[in-house]
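hey team, just a heads up i'm posting the complex here instead of the shared drive bc the drive is being weird again. everything in one block, sequence lines first with there labels, then the predicted structure for the whole assembly after. its two chains so it's a bit long, scroll down
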Amino acid sequence: MSESKGRFGKRVRNSGSWKDDSDLQNDLESVHPSMKRANNKVSKTTTDRNDERKSRISEITADEEQMLFGNKINLEDYENNRQEIFHQQPIDTSPHTLELPKREVDILRLEVTQFQERVDRNGLKSLSAEEKSEFESRKELLHTLQKNNKNESFLLPEDYLTEEGKIDLAKKAKALKMDMKAERKQRENEWYENQVNRAQQVNQLTKLKKETVNETEKQYEYVFDQSHMIDYVPDIPEDEMKELENKIELEELIVQEEKRISSIEETKKSLPVFQFRDELLRSVGKYQVLIVVGETGSGKTTQLPQYLYEAGYGKHGKMIGCTQPRRVAAVSVAARVADEVGTRVGDKVGYSIRFDEKSSENTVIKYMTDGMLVREFLTDHDLAKYSVMIIDEAHERTLQTDILLGLFKNLLKKRPDFKLIISSATINAKKFSDYFDSAPIFNVPGRRYPVEIFYTQQPEANYLSAAIITVFQIHMSQKSSGDILVFLTGQDEIETMAENLAETCKKLEGQIKEMVICPIYANLPPEQQKRIFEPTPKNARKVVISTNIAETSLTIDGIVYVIDCGFVKENVYNATTGMESLEVLPCSKASADQRAGRAGRVGPGKCFRLYTKWVYLNDLPRNPTPEILRTDLTGVVLLMMTLGITDLVHFDFMDKPSTKTLVKALELLYALGALNERGELTNVGIKMAMFPTKPMLSKSLLASSELKCCDEVLSIVSMLEDTGSLFVNSKEKKEMAKNAHASFHSKIGGDHLTLLQIWDKFAESGFSPQWCHDNFLQYKVLQKARSVKKQLQRICRRLGLLSDGPHESEREPNTTALRVMKAITAGYFSQSARLSPRGDTYTTLSRKQPVLIHPSSTLHGAVPPVKLIVYHELVMTTKEFMRHVMPVQGKWLAEYGRNYFDKKDLL
DNA sequence: GAGCACTGC
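-- predicted structure starts here --
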């Protein structure tokens, strides 16, 4: 027999072995004939009390009245006692002398409770005047008692009722806890006293019997003699006390959790998508591809994967995937769903985004960015891990979504068991359906408040001033307190408008209500971005002036009015010239509707469009141009080649990119050595595809390994990924910022070595945000570069490009700069330009195009001017500019660009 | 001597 942890086991030793409770029962009966009854009593006083305790805990929710009032008083007793106690013996209720026996307090308490119940049921009016005053006085008396005697804990209705008379569960739980603690303490005290008394008796008896009774065998026998029966009170040792306490706390948590779950269940059921659950699952079972049209607020993003999981799509080690175009969306939706499912993120529900993955073997529902899924295709061509994939927000038509759609169209033939669900807004559902061979469209209504739309009567010549006037019109004419969201195209406009509004407000001070002006755009430092989420003060109106960051990426609460200028800034890529330009273009109808929708999130809203209805109907394009039609596709082509898709010109894209763009991509890949003469992928190409960077940058990284300057090039490449907003240009401290930036300049190596300098100093500072601030650099951007570098480093190491040995450049420090520049040239030879004979402009080598060095470059205005340069990008703003330039030697271009240039070009 | 829509790997 093993050692038992039961109380009796420790106490009663028999036949040299420890007993558990059930054995003990038999033993007891055999010890003494009188034990049978006593034994029962022992049993009752221990186990039953335990049970009682347990049931008390679990009854917290089930039988509240019983629990709260310990209502064991007989009503007749009550009446009799009442006569006796209250009428025959008037009591002194002054606070200092007041002391009542427990029973009387119980009666009082019951009385108050019954009054309260009557009031709860029928209202205060149901009591007669006499009863009312009695009720009041009893209540007061009880209060006084409670105040006087803190050891006695009473639960008054006030302890758990809200002002409206409903039960406040949080309050009640707290009150209950107090009550139980007090009771436990009391029981403990009683037990202690009892034990002391018994112990004294036992001692005396022991003395008496010791002489005659065999000590070892029968030491405890007398204990079971009826006359000396011990009234057992549950012994609560330290650890068990803790356990009990934990248990009570746990129970409280469970109560809260149950509340939470029931509220989750209610919310889930109230979502529009819920009533379509079964029908949706039937359709998914029946068709391989399903287009789900669900407006915002339908709940499809959170519910659909759960429905699929409940229907068994997560079985047999397969996962349910759901892609999102944005990182924050993937993370926040995963958190939400994990909460609903009742697991922590990373367990059953996980997510996967760049630099951050939370998933495990248990993960069955996985949210991810669409770009992440594209990369996943590289390691798992058949996506064997997934049984179903949901492409959410497909109508946004991001580059990655479009690639995925193409890849899935191929995959569906290979895997008939695989299910694909495309979730889109109404506007282009048909297009998705057509693309997937007339896949059925499933409509789920959304839940949004109506938004009233207003157009201008005539076209507005200047939408900026029109927007300002409209803001004041709303502010002064609309009585309700909703906030205003203004959509403009860029930082410049936003700042201008913010200043203008602030000035006008100042002039009108005292005549109008306060206005809180919040500009918002992606490049705004995060701490300033947070301002838009601060609640609007009373009697003020918030005016958020935003780019289209607020169209999809950010949701601001409290917006009731939207002002839409009708334009967007869009990056336009010209495949022929390789030139990018940021242009202000009319936004699409889809965008305009999306913007208007932002007014209807909290209640009915209004949208003021600064253009005519005619323009909306006739001039605005239906949808924005899909990204795939307006970007460089070199990286996409390389990726798809790696996936075995060789005939890209005939690949079934939803919107086919121009042949010109594809051919240009193929040519460059050939020149970079990623493809051979027959257009087949080379080893270099395979390695390049491993990097999540533009192929030109990947090529530079490969070259840097041979040139023993991998670390330096890694830094530069990581920073080139996102250079647009590295420098902070503060208006007030323009000179200081300029000087700070100038301290990093490198005339020899151009902008690339400047970036390297910045990186090295940033690293030296210990990646300090303060250092960034002091040097007018965006911490956010450098921080991201740091993550990128870490990721690229890992890949380099995996490919054996980066040795862990001593710093490569330490061996030959003098030539480091040159080797770095050479490595960059290995990727960028195709983007080179030569100084024109007159010495004031440059001409691109590939297309003989006139271009200029961007004024932000360190090489701008260099004396003497650099003869031969490569550039990172070509941008068309006021003129054709090369941004991020670096001097090169002709022989480098000849070496790396031998498949690109005619020999005579280089002479 | 100019200027930076927004995402994502």
